[in-house]
Amino acid sequence: MNRKELDPDKSPGAAYGARLRSLREQRGWTQDDLAERMGYSGTHVSAVETGRRSPTLHFSHSADKAFGTGDQFERQGRAVRDTALLEGFSEYVPHEMRAAEIRLFELGIIPGLLQTPEYAAAITTGAVRRGAITEQQAEERLTLLAKRQASMERIPAPLIHAVLDESCLRRPVGGPKIMAAQLDRLLAFAELPNTVVQVAPYDLGERRSFDLPIYLLALPDRSLMAYAESAHQGRLERDIRSVQPLMTAYHQLQAEASSQTASVAMIKEARKGSPL
């Protein structure tokens, strides 16, 4: 039986999982035993214990009730969620790092996987100034982004389809020099043999399939999953009945968006307005 060792010092999520496992084993319960007491599945309990899934408020409340720990798990769960990462994103990232194909749609800002360090730093600095995140959380975001980008250079490299709303090109971030370098990065990215870059122009109007960012993954075993987020929440979806319609919508978006040739021309046109 494979048993993942837990390091409670690694992260708030790891500390939560280690405590959950420790109390469960002290009582001689299996994951299924605890799951039955909490109203969850054993798979769900396993995912929280090993940090593959973040504990929701309801999960923490159920754990406190099962163990008779007052509100300890509820308070510890807040620390897990008090992070620069949206709920569900930390669960998504390990799958992204091993995916065979990545399809993404973004609007407003360049997707993280395609960002330059300076552009990424400008985005996080803005969030700190608004009070949305702390400086420590900003550093957490940048560190994780660097790891995600580095993982894209694995062999074999994943096939990456990126559809960007035109707003990604038009919204200035960090000043002309940073924006120019970012657009140059997009042009270089489009030339890679394992990438497809398209722009969804403004005049696509109601034919644009998505109104929020979305990431779709095809894993090496050909299973599919999706990650979508709003301003305050992210969600990882594995159920093929939910993922397949999103994949269909993404293919429709690709068909409606500008071709890569036309998209590159649009990026070059935007680049002219951001001289170094």
Low-confidence stretches: none
Order of helices and strands: HHHHHHEHHEHHEEEEHH
The major pleated sheet works out as:
6 strands, mixed
Q: What top-tier CATH class of the largest domain fits best?
A: Alpha Beta
The percentage helix is: 40-55%
User: Over all CA atoms, what is the radius of gyration?
Assistant: 21 Å
Total domains, how many?
A: 2
SSE-based structural type: alpha/beta
Written description of the protein model:
With 276 residues, the chain is an alpha/beta fold. The chain has 2 domains: 70 residues, lambda repressor-like DNA-binding domains (434 Repressor (Amino-terminal Domain), Orthogonal Bundle); 184 residues, Endonuclease, Chain A, CATH 3.30.870. 50% of the residues lie in helices and 12% in strands. The protein is built from 12 helices and 6 strands. A 6-stranded mixed β-sheet has the order 3-2-1-4-5-6, sandwiched between helices. A hairpin with a 5-residue loop joins β4 and β5. The longest helix has 17 residues.
Keywords, separated by commas or semicolons:
276 residues; 434 Repressor (Amino-terminal Domain); Endonuclease, Chain A; 6-stranded mixed beta sheet
Could you give a short description of this structure?
The chain is 50% helix and 12% strand. It has 276 residues and is of the alpha/beta class.
Set out the fold topology.
Layout: H1 12-26, H2 31-38, H3 42-49, H4 57-67, H5 72-81, H6 89-96, E1 101-106, H7 117-129, H8 135-151, E2 159-165, H9 167-170, H10 176-190, E3 195-200, E4 214-218, E5 224-229, E6 234-237, H11 240-256, H12 260-272
Parallel strand pairs: 1-2, 2-3
Antiparallel strand pairs: 1-4, 4-5, 5-6
Helix pairs in contact: 1-5, 2-3, 4-5, 7-8, 10-12
